[in-house]
TrEMBL record:
The protein's name: Outer membrane protein
Signal as UniProt keyword: yes
UniProtKB keywords: Signal
Signal sequence segment: 1-19
Pfam families assigned to the protein according to its UniProt record, in alphabetical order: DcaP
Organism lineage string: Bacteria, Pseudomonadati, Bacteroidota, Bacteroidia, Bacteroidales
């Protein structure tokens, strides 16, 4: 850790020494963040429990006692962040810029480690922009919840940063977006677990097209369409023989969003018809719809999920936050030919969560507390429809304390 601190200090001193270069400007930013949390049961919560999603199903022991019913909690600061924005020089009529942003949320076997959050270059003209590099997925977009939890509304709000080529065009109050994206840190599921190989072997990136309308009185509204095309396997082991296969799973998702920002009050909402968006921290995935009896080649069918959330905030110095999210499994397009499924939360019929938080905000400071009950209904998958039946519910109560210092 001492070596890392010395490295970051050296980088900062280097930038300061060169920041006076003609036509360049540098702006450092970041925060120190501490999260203290408590849960009443075990949860699906990556990043060592800090990125909270939903409660895990009951797991009975030999006496029928639920192994997942025990409480847990901890305190972490590894989501503290450091970034630098660079502008200039101009290239023709285009303004050039770049961003590098890191935190300590990458994990080794025993400790946290530095990871890239965002790293991109951009060219801006009067009405258009081209961005190349890693930044927020367009499904995360310009409308996201204002809450304290690190998951920022997941698994109801998409959460993902990916390498991409993005083009945006502004025509008056309308902004159009088109993106081609590749996976790196947030990965789709498949036969070999979570891996980038499915989209790498596909040779087809994710695509997104969308539009936003921003009014002068604080309203923002828009929507978009997302395409993903995966190759789950390139070979099949069938009847003790290996065959080369040509498999592909392609599907579309749709989203709509709205936001209002007033002087002391803000409202935001988003709704998705989501399909195979488990790599964006949403519940989803796909199953097997048919198997070729000659060589074991498989066809796939996506699970469809309806996902929506609303968020209200009031106040500035003292701020109240309210969030509610709901996800429903709508089943698969085709019947399932196998019990094998790839994705996250596919044995869940529905999830409902609320979030009540209060924060105290000063220049460079935020201190807050949050209460978040979440209920998930687990059950059995009906292979004819892909829906979850014979459900039972489990509930987790999460309490979070947050301290942040911005710079």
């Amino acid at each position: 850790m001492k070596k890392l601190i010395l490295l970051l200090a050296g980088i900062c001193m280097t930038f300061q020494a060169t920041a006076q270069k003609k036509n360049f400007t540098y702006k450092f930013y970041g925060f120190v963040r501490g999260d203290l949390f408590y849960n009443t049961r075990a949860n699906m919560a990556p990043v060592d429990g800090n990125f909270y999603l939903y409660p895990l199903d009951k797991k009975p022991d030999a006496d029928g006692k639920d192994l997942n019913a025990g409480p847990n909690g901890s305190f972490y600061t590894f989501t503290s962040r450091l970034g630098v924005d660079v502008t200039g020089p101009n290239i023709g009529t285009a303004r050039s810029s770049a961003k590098i942003e890191v935190d300590f949320g990458g994990f080794s076997s025993s400790t946290t480690m530095l990871r890239i959050r965002q790293a991109y270059v951009a060219l801006d003209w009067e009405k258009s922009q081209v961005l190349i590099g890693q930044t927020w997925h367009p499904l995360f977009g310009s409308v996201c919840p204002d809450i304290l939890n690190l998951s920022t509304g997941a698994p109801f709000q998409p959460f993902n940063r990916e390498p991409q080529i993005r083009y945006q065009y502004k025509a008056g109050k309308v902004k159009l977006t088109a993106s081609a994206l590749w996976q790196l840190q947030y990965l789709s599921s498949g036969p070999n677990g979570m891996s980038e190989e499915y989209i790498k072997n596909s040779c087809v990136p994710e695509f997104y097209v969308g539009a936003d309308y921003a009014s002068a009185d604080g309203w923002l509204a828009g929507g978009g369409v997302h395409l993903i095309s995966l190759k789950p396997r390139t070979s099949s082991l069938w009847n003790e023989k290996t065959y080369k296969v040509n498999e592909r799973m392609t599907t579309l998702s749709y989203e709509a969003h709205v936001k209002y920002t007033g002087r002391n009050f803000a409202f935001a909402a988003k709704s998705l018809m989501a399909s195979c968006l488990d790599h964006t921290a949403l519940i989803g995935g796909y199953g097997i719809s048919s198997i070729n009896p000659d060589n074991g080649e498989q066809e796939y069918t996506p699970f469809r999920h309806s996902t929506s959330w609303v968020n209200f905030t009031y106040g500035t110095k003292w701020k109240g936050h309210f969030f509610a999210g709901y996800t429903k499994n709508l089943g698969t397009t085709d019947a399932l030919a196998s019990a094998t499924k790839y994705g996250m939360g596919l044995d869940i019929d529905q999830v409902f969560s609320t979030n009540i938080a209060f924060s105290y905000n000063l220049p460079h400071w935020q201190i807050g507390v949050e209460y978040m009950p979440t209920t998930a209904w687990y059950g059995d998958t009906d292979r004819a429809s892909g829906k979850v039946v014979n459900t039972h519910s489990v509930t987790n109560h999460r309490i979070l304390g947050l301290v942040m210092y911005y710079f």
